[in-house]
Here is the input.
Amino acid sequence: MVTPSTQLTDPAIDTTKEQTKHAKKVTQLHPRFLEVKQHCHLSAAQLKRYSDPAALPSDTRSAPDLDVGFGQQRALKALQTALDIKASGYHVFAAGENGLGKRTVISRLLTRIAADAPTPDDWVYVHNFADPRTPQALSLPAGQAEILQQQVSQLWQQAKKRLSQRFRSDQYQSKIEAIKNATHQKESQAYDVLNAEGKQYDLALTFRSFDNKAVFVHSSQLPTESSSAADTAAEHTPPASPKSDNPQSAAKPNETAHRRGKQDKVPSGDDEYEAELDNFVQKNHMQKRLSQLTIALEQLEDEANDAIEALHRDIARRALQPLFAPVYQQFAAQPQVVDYLKAVSADMVTHAERIVNGDDEEFVTAALATTPSRYAVNVIVSHAPDSGAPVVFEDLPTHLNLLGHVEQITQLGTVTTDVSMIRAGALHRANGGYLLLEASHLLEHPYAWQGLKRALQSRKIKLSSLEQMLTLTGSLSLAPSPIDLEVKVILLGEADLYYELLELEPEFDAVFKVRADFHDDVTRSPEHELALVAKMADIIDHASLYPFDRNAQAALLEHLSLQAEDQDRLSLHSDLLIKLLHESDRHARLDGQHIVDAHHVMQAIDDMDERSGYLRDLYWDELKNGQQLIQTQGHAVGQVNALTVVSYADSEFGMPARLTAVIQPNIGAGEILDIERDVDLGGSLHAKGMLIMTSYLRALFSQHHALNFSASLAFEQSYAQIDGDSATVSEGCALLSALADVPIDQSLAITGSMNQLGEVQAVGGINAKIAGFFDACREQELTGQQGVVIPIANVQQLMLRDDIIAAVKAGKFHIYGVQSLSEALTLMTGLPVDTMNKKGRYRKDTLFGKVLNRLLLWDENQNVDDDIEDKDAKQTSQKKRKAKKKKDKKKRRQRQEDKGKKGNDDHSSADITTADESPDIAQP
Here is the structure.
């Protein structure tokens, strides 16, 4: 099959001699030609299969119920096998072309199955009080996650309110005051005892004004006015300092005055030294005692603080216990939840004062939240009770959308996160059910496939930071505990992608062990036609379209058979059917009708054909203007109208293309030059067809005579890529026509593949090819002789246009189905091809006989030429020899004449010499 944007030309026109031969042949048609023509001719009934409207519902409203698995029983059986097996790796790859409706079929089937399946558990993430970096995952029965979230939120609100009330009550204040007073009294008593001890050494306890530190000083260093000193000491004494009504403290001013009187006396030098030394030792001793007292007082303060904290915990525990007790009872069947609630209660008891004060961010409710993140219950996935298993389709399967992620916020340049920012992925939502993914979309996103594979193999959903994986940084983030995974994943994709994954991903087959193949079409039978009508009715109801009557249904079924390129098949492409239904409904609405008929369907088909026919119209414009040379009448040698298909984007149409063959006799040994292949315009399939045809011809004639020629084949006016082997038969016809010097009928076009035995094989795009040549003939006027020659194997694929069928019925256009190259050549040339005589040789009036005659003629001509050359060479050689002999004879005669003349001269000289030399001669 040729599938380029092909533009092809017509070479020469018939010569007068060829036209004369053809005229004779028309008047005397060969019986074999008439036999083959009658045998291969197709009737109009064979060109299209019509649906019987009477066997269809009156309109789609009375259509039967839809069978979800219609036409895809093989795929659904494979899917059911995977669903029944709970072992690891039994996930499904649904293979089939885009537009078949794989996702719709699988989703509907899974929805039915999931409705009766057990509802999976809910999952929540909560703060881990033991390790805040690893939030804890809790599972709850379906519907309980949101209840837990609401209960914890209410607990927080009530706890905060109740704690605030208890910590601001008079009872609490009185207990705190009692603890402080008791501590103050103990501190005062300790200071009084130490002060009394210091008096023995004439030392007084006072507090320095600049740092409020207790020190012992000599009585003489106290302020002059005792009242001022007492006031100063009292001013700097902490709450636990001694009180002024102490008897010892009251005696302090008189003693100080007495000592001051003693000091007023002037001591002697020795006495003064001894007094200072004694005072230093005593003061040092009392400072040590003061340090010991300070440590004791700190312990006393710690005990007081512990008592206050114990009071806080006791108050908080008594306040919170009535709040938490009913919630414990509510979730008694979930020990993990009860343990978590107890941890929340213990944490609130521990931090009751911070909760009441509200001065810590960890215990302040964030924006858009009702609970601090510390006590937040983050519902990852929740299901309604008895709702069945989830069926999830993720249209953007990125790593984050599949496995979930942890969000982060930036506040004042600091990146923070918490348990409330954990977000669920598609695997979380589908856990316990089914997940559908487009394989091509999954492979588009980095790390998505790796993350999915890891989760399915480990059967756990573990959130990981994609940022850390990409940047290789160690930034601090949460590491939530993994969640158990139990899911069936169905990947949707084309078969080519499945084979690529098998080849490039070693572990793919271990994860997706089941392949479900979806068919492109289904057998055309009355039952399947009704099932397709049910599918139409389902689409119509879903899209709220007008109903379609039985004639419209029949037109749609015929078009689906055309799309399947088979009279006995119906296309299952849902996208095409949906588009056709919508556009037919549009035409009915434009006509003001409330039911769609066959006319509206045909209008929609014509509109779709026109939209995709821009490139085709450009070709036809060139054909009309004479830029594309196509001859649909007359005869020509080595020239064939080949049927091709031009594929461009989503459009496909047929175009006739001129194929020519040229022979160079007495050059080469049967080589055939494929111009398309040599200039890299021919694809591998086209090259294969050429080699098969070449092998067939060599095997056909080399046993009878040496192939003393070379040939070349080319599609004229073709400037784009050509591929496919559907031109093999047309190439063979053109080449044999040129070899035999027999013209081919240009009113016929031909297509077909061929094997090495000369058998014609089926090709693709047969309906478009026939329509293309018919349009070309109609453009140049139908003569009643025009037609196409196609493989007989393609007859079952014919779903031709009604105007072509009408032309065939009227005898204005003909379609022939052939089984072999011989039948095709007979139709194209009007001659028998390979009839043999009794001696097993091709008859002279057959096409092959003419080919052998030409081969012999070329050989004889070559021999005659060789003889003429040999005779000329011999005559030339003889002439040269004669000329040489004549020349040699002349030379000898000349030498003899010269010798005779020289002899006369020698006689006279000899006489003279003898007379002179005689004495010498006489000597011995």
Residues 893 and 899 are 10 Å apart (CA to CA). The chain is about 50% helix and 15% strand.
